[in-house]
Amino acid sequence: MKISVAGTGYVGLVTGVCLAEYGHTVTCVDIDERKVALMESGISPIYEPRLQELMIKNKERLSFTTDYQGAYKEADVIFIGVGTPEKQDGSANLTHVYTVAEQIARSVEKDCVVVVKSTVPIGTNDKIEALIHSNLAHDVTVHVASNPEFLSQGSAVRDTLGASRIVIGVEDEEAGQVLQTVYKDFNAPIVVTNRKSAEMIKYASNDFLALKISFINEIANLCEIIGADIEDVAHGMGFDKRIGDQFLKAGIGYGGSCFPKDTKALHWLANFHDYELKTVKAAIDVNENQKLKLLKKSRKYYERLTGLNVAVLGLTFKPGTDDLREAPTLVNIPLMIEDGANVRAWDPVGIENFKKLHPEGITYCSSIEEALQEAGICFIFTEWQEIKELELDKYRTLMKHPIVLDGRNCYQLADAEKAGIVYDSIGRETIS
Ligand code: NAD
């Protein structure tokens, strides 16, 4: 089966590489010439564990190009995996998806199935189908199927090769059959629905997870006020199978390219249909406040950060990725700088991307120790393993004042106490 994939971001490239790993011949298309040149030379333009290794392993079955016409014209299946970012009003920006749909319509010279992997509002697959049919340059049959993606950044390859489920939304049996063939070697449950239900499964899943995070964060905030410990509370809750023990980790809120935009897009869509999704709105509001929680806590220790060395550990929105989209650091660090802080930041993979946004005004450090040197306060924004494994004594020996504000609850309270540091985390007693 000849497969093409439009877009080589976290979803498109991982999809293409994993399909090649399962024996398909895949052409990956992107408009970004720099990315394509990198991939052609065997280098992944994004950081994801195992991605580059599998790109090299499957290089015989993988090709990369900006020539969409060549890639689409004789493909059996074309996946759309381009971005659907947030518009100012919260709705999804579908420009890239519609552009690809038009490019496909002008290029295809044989019957094919177009598979929409990008997260798109309910009803978009219908519009894509109409757009393709009205722009077809050749007399061919094009089916459109919805196949939303559930991978998490940081474990994208593992999540794709061992998917929790593969959702296929189709309006005709033929497209369903083709997708069953594409995924025949994937050992995952296949859920076949109509297209609108498939589109909704994606939004409902992401929004439910966002809601779970915001819920535990609110409980954490209350724990702090009344003297309970959120780690114990979450542990005790997680044994209940109806609740589950995943996504009960309190912190400074969710970020990334999906939860923030997918909550807002579904809320917008509901509003558009005169319906208010109150729970989703609450998840969004709680998250906005939670992002600033550490900065608010810092006021307990310093009225202002002016002239202070401030260590920032972790820049990315989660560990295992170099992605900064909607990372809490993007709002917090500019506020610290505005307050006059000397920000000294460390991240194992996110620095290059952060530098593109903030080339000046931040000292980028190549080790945690360097960031902590002479710092008056330290903020932990991402739970990287290197941070979790740091000897806590280092905060005391390297910092001017060992005040650690931990937005990801990386340490045990007893260890912080033993190390003799001030340790202020989320939903737990402050050690001082
Ligand atoms: P991304 O921004 O990382 O990548 C999108 C890529 O598409 C870019 O490389 C861009 O250059 C390319 N592109 C734009 N227009 C193009 C065109 N006309 N032809 C070919 N390529 C084009 O995006 P992403 O994070 O991979 O997300 C893609 C979609 O998948 C979004 O809808 C997102 O919501 C969804 N999704 C993302 C994740 C995730 O964790 N990132 C998980 C599940 C679903």
TrEMBL record:
Give the top-level enzyme category: oxidoreductase
Q: Name one GO biological process term.
A: polysaccharide biosynthetic process
Q: Which residues bind NAD(+)?
A: 30, 35, 84, 119, 261, 325
The organism sits in which domain of life? Bacteria
Residues given in the record as substrate binding sites: 202, 247-251, 255, 318
Annotated family: Belongs to the UDP-glucose/GDP-mannose dehydrogenase family.
User: What protein name is recorded for this chain?
Assistant: UDP-glucose 6-dehydrogenase
